[in-house]
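Batch queue: ligand-bound targets. Current item pairs a single chain with NAP. No template structures supplied; prediction is de novo from sequence plus SMILES. Inputs echoed for audit trail.
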Amino acid sequence: MACSSSEGFWRLGLLAAILLRDGELMLAVVDATEVAGFSLPLPYRLFFLLIEPIATLLGAYYAFFNQPTYLNLTHAASAPSPVPLGTSIALSQLANLYFAFALTEALVLRSTSDLRVWKTVLFCLLVADFGHLYTVSVLGPQIYWNVFEWNAIDWGNIGYLYFAASMRKFTGFQVNGADTWLEFHKNEFQPKPFGDYDVDIKIECCGVCGSDLHTISGGWGEQNFPLAVGHEIVGTAIRVGPKVTLIKPGQRVGVGAQSYSCLDCRQCKNDNETYCQKQLDTYGAVWPDTGIVSQGGYSSHVRTHEHWVFPIPDALPSTVAAPMLCAGLTAYSPLVRNGCGPGKKVGIVGLGGIGHLGVLFAKALGAEVWAISRTHAKEEDARKLGADGFLATADKDWNKEHVMTFDLIINTANSFEGFDLDAYLSLLDVHGRWVSVGLPEGDGIKIRNQTFLGNGCFIGSSHLGSRKETLAMLQLAADKGIKTWVEEVPINEKNLATIMQRLHKNDVKYRFCLTNYQDQFGA
Ligand SMILES: NC(=O)c1ccc[n+]([C@@H]2O[C@H](COP(=O)([O-])OP(=O)(O)OC[C@H]3O[C@@H](n4cnc5c(N)ncnc54)[C@H](OP(=O)(O)O)[C@@H]3O)[C@@H](O)[C@H]2O)c1
Ligand SMILES: *[C@@H]1O[C@H](CO)[C@@H](O)[C@H](O)[C@H]1NC(C)=O
Ligand SMILES: *[C@@H]1O[C@H](CO)[C@@H](O)[C@H](O)[C@H]1NC(C)=O
Ligand SMILES: [Zn+2]
Ligand SMILES: [Zn+2]
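Prediction returned. Tokens below.
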């Protein structure tokens, strides 16, 4: 038998496979899956580590050193030139083995590449397989039937790799129910299926939003437990879908509180996607079709449609940027949509996570900014944040001097305890605007029609912001050196319980940001 040109295919394939490999041992590769935050299923590990190498070596041994037995095995009594055949079979076995390693390591385990690379390598593997089939064609058609089983195993292996890649699990700190909201459990969970527009992000840090607390403590009612919350996420894009154009693998990116909308309706088409009727939250939402509940950023990874994945400007440290993705945006969007800028007097009610970023952004947009807090405890901080003035609602007649002078007030209060809406609204000039972004628990407060009489003010609300606004906000923060005030806390069960209690007591300046993810989920 002539050394056919198809042998060239596997030699090329072999070379490509060796180039793809970076020389790590098999075991190191499997260990790497653990630290990457997901693990290979046991049957596949057994197959990969034990059965496949032994079968390959046995195949190579028989083909190369014990050809009569091999030829008997394959019923190929009349092989014209045994040596090239043996070489070719040994080579093809090796090629397949190396390819399996290369595939597993480069694509499944590390998952640093996108599906296009994955498909290309699979294509090379198929070429190698067909090259093998073509070479043995000199043995007559019967040979195909006899080697069919091996090839079935090879192809099954490819299928399994693909399957393993798509079924990869993430790990996160979940709460099991509102009655045990301070108990966080490190669990594996299944993300939604990887879509063409999806980006897998390895999380580096995550801010702790007031909404996380409302959600796990049951303040907002029933939730889909077990649940990992967190929607102020910064990390690295490690895998992008074949149709992704906005994000590149390796890029530092962020994800906020929204992770889906239809991108097709009237609202989605005019940068109001946050108000789309099909919008889905980053955590606690049920993905249509699969029933999978979305899990947030107290986790190893997050899988998000590219529209809600935002490149982070280099100038912004990760823990500074993370809280901007929910708290910052929630303040920024209503500010820009309601004319915050030079010549405007803007109030920010509540100096918490959203409120302190509200002061920073309103100032950066050029307005005269007043922080409106309950007591004087945060006055000095408010001035450091850049507030031009400070009002404490605990003071007698706190509003009198400023009645009918504000153009816009953003309300971030997360409770209605002792909340005197009429006193706040009296601050607004004629047709001034009151925009509430806080989402207190309970039934809310009564609003009388007479409330609006004095100044004809408008009251409204605002939900997060658009992709465009997110990018503009991050750029503004980078350009003006805006810094979130963060308390960094390493993520673990104990710290999560502690910071939730502290947030509950309003004891944070002014945002917790969970860090040291590598200690829990690997590098
Ligand atoms: N609309 C949206 O898109 C959106 C997005 C994210 C979050 N949220 C909601 O916004 C709210 C605030 O979130 P956050 O993360 O900023 O919370 P946070 O860090 O806990 O801050 C809330 C602040 O509200 C003030 N406050 C609390 N109780 C009050 C009361 N009874 N009367 C007046 N002020 C009160 C406090 O400020 P002082 O100590 O200065 O008084 C507190 O620091 C939460 O309800 C959250 O769920 C809404
Ligand atoms: C949002 O919708 C409103 C009402 O249709 C429209 O006026 C506005 O331009 C839209 N987009 C933004 C970014 O506000
Ligand atoms: C306010 O006015 C609306 C519309 O006229 C009316 O339906 C409602 O009952 C009034 N509410 C109060 C509390 O007076
Ligand atoms: Zn939030
Ligand atoms: Zn829509």
